[in-house]
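Troubleshooting: if your tokenizer reports a length mismatch, compare your output against this known-good record of 663 residues.
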Amino acid sequence: MEPVGDVANPASLDPEGLGFMCGIEVHQQLATGKLHSRQSGELHDITIETLPEEWPKFHRKLRSSSGEGGAVDVAARFEARRNRSFVYCQSPNAGLIELDEQPPLPHDTDALDISLTVSGMLNAHPVPLLQTMRKTVVDGSNTSGFQRTTLVATAGVLETEGGPVGIDVLCLEEDSARKLTSELTPDGEVVTWNLDRLGIPLIEIATAPDIKTPDHAKQTSIALGRTLRDTRRVRRGLGSIRQDLNVSIMCGDRVEIKGCQDLEWIPKIIRCEMARQLHFYRLANQLRASHGLPILTNDRREESPSVQVEVANILQLNMIDVSSQFAGCESKRVKEGLSNKSVMLALPLPGFSGLIGTKEFDSDGAQLPRLGRELAGAAKLAGVAGVYHSDELPAYGIEQKFVDATRDALNGVDAFVLCLAPQWQAELALESVLNRARLAFERIPQEVRNVVIRKGSPEDGTTTPMRPLPGGARMYPETDIPPLAISTDHWNNVLNNLPMTQAERLERLSNFEISDDQVKQLLSRELDDDFVSHSDGLPQKAWAAMLLENEGDIGLMALVLATKEEGHVTREGMSALIQEFAGQNPSMDQLSSKAEELGLKPADAGDLAAIVEKVVNERLDFVKERGMGAMGPLMGVVMKECGGAADGKQVSALLREAIMRHA
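Known-good structure output:
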């Protein structure tokens, strides 16, 4: 049976009926120094506009090389053809290893311990010998042209709301550099990178394809994130954890989607990808039928007849220079491009009229899948800003007469794609367009795609192509780092010292007399260990509030609260003492003396009662008129009379008693 589903309504698609498969890869930064250098893990929050002038800059070009088996990885070969160059900005925590000028050091011991701990928490099985591998990466994000990664454990299991999900592998690897900007030039793209993040340890966890639905994918991501945070040794904040989605339906193929940082978007991103794969399966059979070619089966496990030879005859690499036809075009972009010695090349796509598509939207407001967007994505990977195609013209300042002139130059072909760029770049872009157009006769290509981001958030859940899905040729052994054996004693020690789970921490806090909100905040801000370890002899709610409202040395805060309970400082004066003694180790006597010096010592109970009585007597008419409503205004008056040397709770009690007596 043909797959059923309305592409324009992705939320209605049936995962089970479409043969949905999904796995997740999570990459979590660890709160340690760098993995293979002893540089700090400090990140520098800069942009290209705020880049310090004193940071050294290094210019590089990378090339692909063959892997251990002698083959060049398909993704590496593609990146090498993009003619890109790179500028690396050396941050204070980047040295010779980050610049690929010195051999790497063995694994950071803390990072290794955390990865083994997470393996134990996921019931995974460690490999007996850790062999670091080089994973070819030639997009410029690694100065060396590869990422170092080490397989740590396999065959684990993660419990989720939707059922258990297998953990195929857990790896320990280096994070990449951070892109600051990219610029298109006549000689190719120039990308600028910040090296502060390069080499920070990442735990990579890849699940089995056990995820049942788009919502189950979100649940799995939440469960993985919770497990990692339970170690209390991972980084927090935006960008510290990244999710990649491996998605397919039976009539499509596997696609890896990057950039899924917002967990709330995961179900929508997956549904959009399901709709995209379904659309392109149907388009492939529409193209095949129109050319009398054998139809694709709806199950990728069944072999479909190859039509590559026939398609290569239908769609030939035949680029025509139509720059002269656009000499009088008033489009600003066309005029500027031609005046800067760019050329307008045209690629005929016979039989594609009406199939390239125009921008339309689904029921949730996301762009519907269309071939034109895929062709533009393929062209952009060559570094051009975009392409024009016949289904969307006339538009963008290109009038009908220029469309007609292009068709005449192409001998009346019904569909075509235009690219305006330097000659070499336009040719590379249109060659990429042609390859993608030929693939329209097949199932969707296996590739890495990226969520479309606008102003830091997903635009609509759709994706654009990044590069072909890498193969096994990208991995080969790292000979500069010796293998590391994991002994049985080492592993047993890890298992005997696993951190508490979220549920265990929640149960521990239930034994204290604090509010539910305080429990939630202590857990989310990872302060529950500090709360428990210093709670003896302190009022529990006040101690929880102290931790949540202040920052600094935990021991100092506990001592200040104890000083307040002994009556040596007012509640309002505690923050001042914490700031006064920051970075020191004072005694309670020193705290008490400083409180008295600063006028923060509580007023004598008898004096305080007299001040309250005086304030109430002076405002008897107001008290009789407002009753207990006078509490708020009179609190401020009493506190002012005391010069701040009064405990608010004590003042409130005395004032309440006085008002009730006089009202």
